[in-house]
């Protein structure tokens, strides 16, 4: 990740628009791109969205960025370890409550390639879909978007949507069973497609300035992947590694486990719809 890290504005406060700024954590990887982007919402007072990994340099940078302002809330979109662990250090340093997604800590089927769950996350308040937190006289509204994880939330404020990992600005989202669910993920994408947000601010990657078009592209990509999987298992019975090898030629080996998780998510969805069956880890069309 040395090349990806070079020249990035780590631990610096960058203003994106009035009332929304970000600080980039120094945790680049094949799954986090340049790292986790923590957002500061508000001007006279602030909410911290996706506090990120519990890295001392990152926490110190966030305290500098806060600059003595009152922290209304520390808000988490979900509980993967690149998103929520710093919430505890920040709560201790600022006295602010941890508000946002519900606690969740599960193991995936087999080894997990992307970030594991933060088992120590303990919110002071869980937000349901449509509930909000007031900052500087503006509402930050929770938008429930299960799929990447069952507890995933996005946060809407002033026409912007902070999308966590549900929509990323550089890559498609990993959906890994048993908690990641493809049908829920697609339904959540469709939910965003019907909204009128003017910009998405993901936790990883650049802002998305054409949200509805971008979401339609993500949905189209998943539908094409589903058709590809159906074609492959229609040719003959296949296991998941075989499907990954055929569907993702030239794939970075670091991403094979994640690709297998997404293929499994597709297959489980197709199985529920009666389109495929499995026997001894082999999948075929019905």
Spans of at least 5 consecutive residues whose pLDDT stays below 50 are 1-5, 108-113
Quickly count the helices.
7
Task: Describe the sheet with the most strands.
Answer: 7 strands, mixed
How many discrete domains? 2
* Amino-to-carboxy terminus distance: 43 Å
What amount of the residues lies in strands? Answer: 15-25%
SSE topology string: HEEEEHEHEEEEEEHEHHHEE
> Which structural class do the helices and strands define?
alpha/beta
Q: Determine and state the CATH class of the largest domain.
A: Alpha Beta
CATH architecture assignment name of the largest domain: 4-Layer Sandwich
Strand order of the largest sheet: 1-2-3-4-5-6-7
Could you give the count of β-strands? 14
**CATH domain topology of the largest domain:** Metallo-beta-lactamase, Chain A
Q: What does the overall shape look like?
A: elongated
- State mean pLDDT (0 to 100 scale): 92
What's the Cα radius of gyration?
A: 19 Å
* CATH homologous superfamily heading of the largest domain: Ribonuclease Z/Hydroxyacylglutathione hydrolase-like
Query: Portion of residues in helices?
Result: 25-40%
Domain Metallo-beta-lactamase: 35-204
Organism: Sphingomonas sediminicola
Protein name: MBL fold metallo-hydrolase
